[in-house]
Specification:
The structure is a homodimer. By secondary structure, chain A is an alpha/beta fold. Chain A has four domains: about 190 residues, MoaB/Mog-like domain (Molybdenum Cofactor Biosythetic Enzyme, Chain A, 3-Layer(aba) Sandwich), CATH 3.40.980.10; about 50 residues, Molybdopterin biosynthesis moea protein, domain 2; about 90 residues, Beta Complex (Molybdopterin biosynthesis moeA protein, domain 3), CATH 2.170.190.11; about 70 residues, Beta Barrel (Beta-clip), CATH 2.40.340. In chain A, about 20% of the residues lie in helices and about 30% in strands. Chain A contains nine helices and 26 strands. The N terminus of chain A is likely disordered.
Chain lengths: ~425, ~425
Amino acid sequence: MTRQAYKTISVLPMAGRERLIGRELSIEKAIRALWDALNGWRIETERVRAPDALNRILAQDVVAPADFPPFDRAAMDGYAVKAEDTFGASPTNPALLKVVGESRIGQWPGFEVHRGEAAYVDTGAPIPKGADAVVMVEYANRVSEEFVEVLSPVAVGENVSKRGEDVKAGSIALKRGAVVGPAELGLIHQLGLEEVEVFAKPKVAVFSVGDELVELFPDAPPGKIVDSNTPMISSVLRRWGADPVASEPVPDDVDAVKEALRRSLESCDAAVVCGGTSVGEKDVVPEAVDSLGPPGVVVRGLAIRPGRPTGLAVVVGKPVFLVPGFPAAAYLVTEFVVIRFLWMAMGHRDGPPRRTALARLSRKVPSHPGVTHFVRVSLRREGDELYADPITASGAGVLSSITRADGVVVVPPELEGYEAGERVWVYLM
Amino acid sequence: MTRQAYKTISVLPMAGRERLIGRELSIEKAIRALWDALNGWRIETERVRAPDALNRILAQDVVAPADFPPFDRAAMDGYAVKAEDTFGASPTNPALLKVVGESRIGQWPGFEVHRGEAAYVDTGAPIPKGADAVVMVEYANRVSEEFVEVLSPVAVGENVSKRGEDVKAGSIALKRGAVVGPAELGLIHQLGLEEVEVFAKPKVAVFSVGDELVELFPDAPPGKIVDSNTPMISSVLRRWGADPVASEPVPDDVDAVKEALRRSLESCDAAVVCGGTSVGEKDVVPEAVDSLGPPGVVVRGLAIRPGRPTGLAVVVGKPVFLVPGFPAAAYLVTEFVVIRFLWMAMGHRDGPPRRTALARLSRKVPSHPGVTHFVRVSLRREGDELYADPITASGAGVLSSITRADGVVVVPPELEGYEAGERVWVYLM
């Protein structure tokens, strides 16, 4: 926006206000508008080796090729028995059973267990035919090579892992969109799958705009400020599975921003441009974006606090996020707008699955109707209650309000805040 | 343990039971015993460049070298004023102020604002001397080059970020032991710190023991099972900041385990050996550990379910964790014993800061007194309540009980379980 445009707004202040505020959209509507304007953009998928799937997002259901476990097996070291033979057994009145064999891991037992009989089983070994429970070794007294005393009863199925108990052949073991954590990674290995189809990590360019900004270096010139938003935004992107490509700050100059953005989008799938998005004189980013061809800026102004000056744009068919330069706003907009969009593109309609907790507000939280408020809170356990203390911060510029926060309470637009003592859902950070 | 030793246990079953169960320790006592036996083992620290600090754990407090912001600055684009000049202002009764200058980002304003005056300020620009509030540009009507109408009152301090408001010089901006997330990374940059002191990532060897185990490969021989624990345990370690060094499965052979462990500890700071830790005949790991010199196995048997056969050992002065081979037990023991120990060594007395949520149990959870139970639960939001559904699983071998779990309820040893409807704390996974 040039000086001239600024003056236009200044002499028509209410219209200027309208220009921004009148177009404020909810996050849902804004993301939908961006999506519609993108017209076919998508996140690619790729096959990765099972060991490399950690923290990736599945692009296809993982179907079990076979039952797991593949046979009934012992869940404990002990003796495979017919459970009814142990009923009433106790240390003073043990059940005496004949030991007819041993079942070893990786070998098929060639014998059967009948009434009055038992077979030693290793944990994980197949249960011999006829047996329906396992007496733990601690409750068995091997009185001789041939006989064992059972000191405690077992129920049918006790200490037995049934065939298919963990995963049945043909069943969906993991759903498309699931995040591969440690347990999912173990399951993929357990199923013997060598590769899985995952979403490619979207490459997202990140840079900040501002004459005052410098990259971290030993002695920043006086009056300059280190660009903390670019590493912060990059970290949020990395944490949620994207591949950030950070570059140095760009001055408040339309041509410089245009060139930086054009170059970034040659190799990246999307871009986050931080700063220069408000209605002030120096807001060169929207102009730079629009100069790169239609559709340009699709949404300008979101009905969220902080984060109102957020813009969504399409440049060379790719999504570009105009994120406010205030650190706390930059953080929240990246978490709740950029990440939500990227995860929507990976089948998560409402963004990534975030952990939530119910907590009791220790203070009133006011909000404007029609606007979604993100209230940073710290959490405190007190007896059997979790309390959320709203963090007092005089502006979105206060980064420590984020480092001190344990979570975020989202006040929806249909409410006028929450009262002290109300129980609210907290998104845990 | 040789066949002979097994027989000794078998013919003296209660003593054998005692041998394991009688020594069962709580996690706290077991970790303390391991720590005492380690005698000086510690996790090193290192300096990393600020951009590389993401997800690292601070080994020193981060002290702010200067106030941030370094001066009072505008939190909004607008007009710096004396607040009292705006009291009573409205669109129908605006306050007319004389514009005496502009304050730009990165430049020091060389003028002062007196009663009846205003100065245009960019967001982030220094507040000129004399001014004590900022009127947002949306509430200002620049009627001419020389005058501006203020349409709404502002309070003293409104839209001003005070010097040191975010972080005061000399204050501890981040504490030793803090995990560097995106916001902390931003703050480190904002403070202009080039490097921070963090804990080195402990190198932890991970391997599984079992004749039946193979590394993932196209066609596992019949009767063999893919080793899913090693990648799973490695993933948990990686997720919590360690540097896992996974190797292939080792057969149930004392010499093979001994050699694998000896070799691992040449280059690693610690080891996790999965499987072969119970009292069955094939439990070669404790014997292998003890053969590598004193103190060897320090703790055998924890008062936890699942995970009872867990062992803690010291080999060549380094901690070695003997983790049960059942996948769910392996997972939980890694999360709640191994990780807890490693984080204790990094100043987190009670292990890593885990997210917790209060939830209402949908079913009764039984437990044995004197034993800590880890109950996997899935969480369900229903209206204004979070419900925890205990996951029914017939054994610790059921890995899908972990993939389906949203969290874990820890039943402490002093309780005999929880009733249906009780509100409990859930550790979110």
